[in-house]
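Could you help me review a protein record that somebody else here produced? Do not assume that whoever made the record got everything right. The record follows directly below this note.
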Amino acid sequence: MKQGWEIRPFEKCIEKVKYTTKIATCDYSTMGAYPVVSQEEEYISGYWNNAEDVFRVSKPVVIFGDHTRVLKYVDFDFVLGADGVKILQPIDAINAKFFLYYLIASKIPSLGYSRHYKLLKELNVPVPPIAEQEKIVAELDCLSGIIEKKKQQLKELDNLAQSIFYEMFGDPVENDKGWEVKTYGSEFQISSGGTPDTKNNLYWDNGDISWIGSNLCHDEIIYKNDGKYITKDGFDNSSAKEYKSGYVLVALVGATIGRTALLRFNTTTNQNVAGINVPANDNFVPEFIFYHLQKLYELFMGIGNGKFKMANLRFIRELPLIVPSLSLQQEFASKIESIEKQKELIAQSIKETETLFNSRMDYYFN
């Protein structure tokens, strides 16, 4: 333990908070006066108008999602959203932001859908003098601020790419530029993947064939998988298919339905992903189709009339496809390539700053 630091049990680090009012997710509004804080990833989940339900923040608190493990620093009055949310109000001897960083560094393990708060109660918190806490917070805030600014730069470049598409091709659904319109099915081979039997180790252990799911479809160009591989036996004994670099993928179901990916490597996928063989058609370039398909997202949202949404291959094949000249598509692809190079430099800078941030977190808390 560092000199001048003490160790305190977790429950000796927080004050008791008397607050039981929680509101249901379906009641959130965008027009209310008070922000709603839930255990979801979004910092603010919505807004609420009833002042009687507001938690008045006399000093900053930390919000902990008992199911999601999401952590948030809150220094404003708010309404607590739904269930499974804990308000952690540190004692005066502990800076709330310092407390937040410690909890992030603690990496509370996942218990599936079980509650995680009981794991927090097992923690022993290192507590330096308050002045030292503030110096640590200032350093970590600086690094995290740099990371957030660079991530914002990535978003701005993504917005630029979208703007270039609209300028060159217009809205593919409205077809305000009057392009010839065909369908995806008339121009491309489209198929879905498959999943080898997960109970058969011969299909998974020591596999060297990339296999991905729809979780990687986030309207991004992807260069590698997320660590899942299958064996040749798994490939041969399932409906998994190899999709090569240049294929455009789209998620068929779940939280990412309608979201896309442009492959820069060869991979197989599960059955929740449709693969569009753009390289096989010389009249189109993958970058154009990748951005074109993103503009059809609202068509996916119309599936199911508010109920469970699931697209099938027939739906994908019937999607409208504008047909601009190949030279214009190639010009667009060249601009996207330039943007991607800029994004790559920024992403590398983010990675380096995150490495420094993590090393400082490890130094202070582990």
User: Anything to note?
Assistant: The longest strand covers residues 85-90.
